[in-house]
Design brief:
heterodimer; A: 296 residues; Rossmann fold; 6-stranded mixed sheet; 14 strands; B: 271 residues; two-stranded antiparallel sheet; 71% helix; disordered N terminus
Chain lengths: 296, 271
């Protein structure tokens, strides 16, 4: 059974079409990374799934509930970790969790809070106000709050956006644990590494629709081949190289101060300059080729 | 890529959830209680002190110099019973306006709550119930203070918390609706100047509205605060049959603002 089934979903905000005929199935038990640049429609999709946005057309089904009509029971069985920290900062860690345990109708609130504290590794800070916690602890608490009722489906909306690498790694560990327990996860992100590390499958979203989907390795093989050649040279030389590569039928993308010839194994012998750095193709190559956006 | 899942949790039977579930309302209120525990001292201090200051300034100041009695009641007792309404509007409309706006626009609190099985109707109802409960307590403070200036306790006064609660429900609904309507927080200045202050001044708190021009008297009759003032004075000095109509008016006001607040907040919170 699919935990999430979206079919032909459209959501407009005035003249802007944020979600444009979105088709998306998320089977139970997997972590699907919804990868896309800013403005791709990821957050709107998340809001549609929590009933905080109503689709103009299309069909939405979550955990066997039709949305928006049955959004409330669907929300009871899903957990949401928002992009923005919206914890109650003056309230203690345990009270933050207890409030949400009640909102999710958890029968044994005390046990749920203890379990969430263990998950977030915050048991010894349970009586501290949230504003006394470090940034990493707050993000762990935010995650634990979304899991306090042991949901079947978890929506992670850009879970590590704006965090430093150490905190990001901490959260990845927690999300990895969640995956190992078989919880279905839909994670929107624009961090390539996050999608590569955590997602069983990645769906690349651009301008409101899914433009490609598959396991990271499959997507790389399909769109980027096996190798990428990065060439660093003065801008004029890069322009010439790019034109040559494109006329030879190769795919080229910008890579900061360099250009990257994606699928360089297909180039004729001697075409790739000797000074090029040859590396394995990555999901970042796929992302940039498909969306035309620089990756983060 | 990480390890394969240990197991996929079994799907439970589909749940049915109703509108206005007490558990959802209680959950939202429990959040308010948890927050209130962190700031109750300041709020209580101002909610208690402000009516006392007004009482002393108007009741003792005017009472000692210009006005001895109004409608056969010592002026300080007249003002003391009227100040209940002042305490109610300031502890309901204003917290509802500012609190709702801040939680929605700055703290993103409602986004988190609505991601749980709580709908806008339950959210607004819980906010109104919580504010009204607080207001029912704070509204009684001026009455209690006036006991020290000779106001005799009366059985009818036991109904004052109920009157305060119902009125505060109405004004908290008004505040939530305003919070969902204004675009910027400073636009509350218009709301205060156009609605809150006139309602407060033309409630019959400091002077009987019978002394006002006829047109203003008619307007005052549809002022919920005036109805509250009259009900509190009824509780203190004796009810009249018309007080049933006054109470019904306040219930109607609460129901009306409740539905308007839900409608406005739905437009704000659901895209």
């Amino acid at each position: 059974m699919a935990a999430i089934e979206l079919s032909g979903v459209v959501k407009r905000f005035g003249p802007i079409t944020a979600v444009d005929g979105l088709d998306l199935d998320v089977p139970e038990g997997i972590c699907l990374g919804l990868l896309g640049p800013n403005g791709a429609g990821k957050s709107t999709t998340m809001r549609l799934l929590t009933g905080q946005a109503i689709a103009d057309s299309g069909r939405l089904r979550v955990l066997d509930y039709e949305l928006p009509g049955q959004s409330k029971p669907a929300r009871a069985e899903m957990g949401v970790v928002p992009q923005l920290d919206n914890l109650d900062v003056d309230v203690t860690v345990e009270d933050n969790l207890a409030v949400y345990a009640r909102l999710y109708r958890v029968k044994d609130v005390g046990a749920a809070v203890d379990r969430a504290l263990d998950l977030a590794r915050l048991r010894d800070r349970r009586r501290d106000a949230v504003d006394k916690l470090s940034g990493g602890m707050r993000r762990r608490l935010l995650l634990a709050r979304g899991l306090v009722h042991e949901p079947r489906l978890v929506l992670l909306d850009e879970p590590t956006v704006g965090l430093d690498p150490q905190i990001r790694t901490e959260l990845w560990t927690l999300i990895g644990d969640l995956k190992a327990r078989g919880t279905t996860i839909l994670m929107s992100t624009h961090y390539i590494e996050e999608a590569e590390r955590l997602a069983d499958e990645v769906a690349v979203m651009h301008r409101g629709k899914i433009i490609s989907r598959g396991r990271p390795a499959e997507l790389i093989a399909e769109h980027a081949g096996s190798h990428t050649a990065e060439i660093y040279a003065p801008p004029q030389r890069l322009t010439e190289l790019r034109a040559d590569a494109e006329s030879a039928g190769l795919r080229v993308r910008p890579a900061g101060p360099a250009i990257a010839i994606v699928g360089s194994e297909r180039a004729e012998d001697g075409f790739v300059p000797e000074e090029a750095v040859i590396r394995a193709a990555t999901l970042e190559d796929v992302f940039v080729l498909l969306t035309g956006e620089e990756a983060e | 890529m990480s390890a394969q899942p240990e197991s996929v949790p079994a799907a439970p039977a589909p749940r049915r959830m109703r509108r206005l579930e007490p558990a959802a309302i209680a959950g939202v209120m429990s959040r308010e209680v948890a927050n209130f525990r962190t700031y109750w001292r300041g709020t209580t201090f101002s909610s208690v002190l402000e009516p006392i200051v007004y009482l002393l300034a108007f009741g003792l100041g005017l009472g000692a110099t210009l006005v001895d009695e109004v409608e056969g009641v010592p002026y300080i007792q007249f003002v003391g019973t009227g100040m209940v309404a002042t305490a109610v509007i300031f502890s309901s409309a204003l917290p509802a306006m500012f609190g709702t706006f801040v939680k929605h626009r700055f703290q993103n609190t409602y986004e988190a709550i609505l991601a749980a099985p709580v709908d806008v109707e339950e959210l607004v109802s819980a906010e109104m119930l919580w504010i009204a409960t607080r207001s029912a307590v704070y509204g009684c403070v001026p009455l209690i203070v006036t006991f020290f200036w000779g106001l005799e306790p009366a059985p009818g006064m036991l109904l004052v918390p109920l009157f305060c609660f119902v009125t505060a429900l109405g004004f908290s609904g008004f505040g939530v609706a305003m919070a969902a309507t204004v675009a910027k927080i400073d636009q509350f200045n218009y709301v205060t100047a156009l609605f809150v202050t006139p309602l407060f001044l033309v409630a019959g708190t400091f002077f009987p509205i019978s002394g006002l021009p006829e047109g203003v008297q008619v307007v005052a009759q549809v002022n919920p605060l005036h109805q509250l003032v009259e009900l509190v004075r009824g509780g203190a000095f004796g009810f009249e049959l018309v007080d049933l109509a006054r109470f019904a008016f306040l219930v109607g006001f609460a129901v009306l603002t409740w539905r308007v607040a839900i409608s406005r907040m739905s437009k704000r919170l659901i895209d």
